[in-house]
Amino acid sequence: MTEPTPKVIPGSGGATPAGALTDPVPVTPPRSHWRDVWDQFKRHKGALLGGIIFLLIVLAVFIGPFFWSIDATYIDIRARNQGPSLAHPFGTDQLGRDTMARMMAGGQTSVAVGITAMALALVLGSFVGLIAGYFRKLDGPLMRLTDLFLALPLLPLLLVMVMLFRGSLNQAFGPETGIFILIVGAIGITSWMPTARIVRGDVLALKEREFVLAARSIGTTNTKMIIRHILPNVMSPIMVSATLGIANAIITESALSFLGLGFPPDFPTWGRLLFDAVDYLQQYPERVIWPGVAISLTVLSVNYLGDGLRDALDPRIRGR
Amino acid sequence: MLTFTIRRLVLSIPTLLFISLVIFLLLELAPGDPTAAQPLTIPPEVRERLREALGLGEPLHVRFVKWIVQFFWIEPQVLLDHLFGTSFAEGKQRLISWQTRSPIMDIVVQRLPQTLWVVGLSYVVGVLIALPIGILSAYRQYSIFDQIGTFVSMLGFSVPTFFTGVLLIVIFSVHLGWFPSIYDTTLVVNSWDNFMAQLRQMVMPVFVLALFNAAQISRFMRASMLDNLNQDYVRTARAKGLSERVVVLVHVLRNSMIPVVTVIALGVPQVFGGAIITEQVFKVNGIGQLLITAIQANDLPMVQTLTFIFAVLIVLFNLIADVLYGVLDPRIRYD
Given this model, what pLDDT does residue A119 score? Predict the structure, then answer.
């Protein structure tokens, strides 16, 4: 047990009979919930390492371009197809663009897509889960809807959605913003269901607890009840879903780009870089390795982070 | 049990109808025009008649009902005719692909064996790898084997199949030259050499998918074993002097398999979906690759039918998983 039970000194009543009635005073200050979670999280070496690596990747991708000044779209046709060198640590591609700059630019898109799509799926899923768990009348229809979404073939539908809406969104928002909105929206709409199910289950259990009854007895409205009392208590499963959601979104985006139905070629993402590199597999196999390792490392670190977070947030495991 | 199965079967009909409606409406928004590939010189009225010939002149609901009838009524009749030599479907309009102008189901039937061989075999191999790993790492929890197993399975579902596939191609096809990087579907197996060639070209796609499946299933197996290993009945079995082997492999394993079997059943449709990517990597011309080419060619009837087949698989295997759970676990009563 890492969590020390507060040491108790009996009240200093002594001789007076009323002494037995004085409350014991804890000598150690109370520990906050998040402090406990952090202590448990620290013990999970894989999760800690995963978190650090994920942070490093995000920093490298977003801050790196300030130090590495070659533009990702700058074409230097004389320096094409070069291997790793001091001027181009990751080499250059078939048009002489610097692979390191492209990896950073691609990483920005991939990580941004992952985080935005995760946020969208999380908001949708938590909303549906909270509403379905809290309002009994909506439970049936919303859960049937969730089941229907779970029965949809997601990857084929994602491909179809990208094919159908790419043109119109490109016209409305421009080619880059359009495809970004499309992919984030498509991934968000097709991956909220697990979160909704988990949140609903937790809300159903919470609703029967005494503190909810107490809050209701002092006249708390439904909105206040959900925001003040229910939502903070279902934050743990939501946070675990968030980490797994990032991993899932990054993989899905890369898969779409890999199938040639994601981002356009001049707008690099890790998946797109991998897809482009496959054509040169025989001559320059290292070009496949960079984006592939980037995707795998990011997803692996996020998954480990999620694993540790799940253990840390579960009060039954904590302290073991 | 039977009433439950029948009830679930009946309930899955509206689900499937709803899914087909969703897919149909989604495709209805498609901006692409199937006559766009024709030369610009053909007059507009001819173009209009071309569209009508493809069945696009009718209003929305008529086309939807037509599709439903063709898929659920006429195509099964074609199958019956093929099997028993009857002639139910003679002269009836079948589902036609815009791309090839041939019946969709014929193409699907041509493509299905490749997918089934690669996907089916990889799932079987994946399960066969996953179960022993899951059992061992649960039995020796926190041992080195368990730690390595955990790491490998984490790696297995973190590294996307399109990267493992490409990596294997780089190593084994480009550098070592052991296996071909492209799956040759025209290969006819009629001699030992052909059989070895078939085996060689299947090794990599099967291994990629198997690793991915094994990663997930072994986690479930481990968790399920751990749940059971501390139960009272295990202590009873040990106390009455059964050997450790019997305790673990008979008593614990049988009880742990119940949730794992349903997970295996639930995973089958996902594997078909995931195979789309693997088929693309290794150029296997299965139904996943068919879907991709249909999407790129704007062949809407083909896309609709294939997507719906994937949906049918999901609903079917959900049903199988539910029924299996009831059959295997006598504590569960659905009635």
Answer: 93
Residues of B in contact with A285 (CB under 8 A): 170, 174-175
Query: Which of A144, A152, A154, A160 is the best substitution to test chain B (most B C-beta atoms within 10 A)?
Result: A160
pLDDT value at A256 more than 60: yes
Minimum mean pLDDT among A11-25, A78-92, A100-114, B181-195: which range? A11-25
The pLDDT tens digits of the residues spanning B255-287 come to: 888 888 888 888 888 777 777 888 888 888 888
Of A248, A212, A210, the residue nearest A231 (C-alpha)? A212
DSSP E strands, A151-249: none
**Token pair belonging to A283:** 């001559």
Which of B26, B29, B166, B305 is the best residue to mutate to test the A interface, defined by the most A CB atoms within 10 Å of its own CB?
Answer: B166
CA distance A98 to A80: 9
Among A309, A131, A286, residue whose Cα is nearest residue A235:
A309
pTM exceeds 0.90 for this model: no
Residue found by looking up tokens 């049903």 in the block: B319
Chain centre distance of CA A251 = 12
CB B127 within 8 A of CB B214: yes
Looking at the complex, does the CB of residue B163 fall below 8 Å from at least one CB of chain A? yes
Looking only at the bridges linking them, the beta strands covering A25-26 and A8-9 are antiparallel
Which whole number is the average pLDDT over B304-331?
Answer: 84
**What is the rounded distance in angstroms from the CA atom of residue B22 to the CA atom of residue B33?**
20
Task: Determine the Cα–Cα distance for residues A92 and B106; give it in Å rounded to an integer.
Answer: 46
What is the average pLDDT across B117-132? Answer: 88
Q: Does B292 touch chain A (CB under 8 A)?
A: yes
Query: By the 8 A CB rule, do A109 and A175 touch?
Result: no
Closest CA to A55 of A305, A308, A309, A247: A305
Beta carbons within 8 Å of B22's beta carbon, 6+ residues apart: A152
Give ∠ CA B147-B148-B151 in degrees, rounded to 5. Answer: 90
ipTM over 0.85: no
Rounded-to-integer distance, Cα A285 and Cα B170, Å: 6
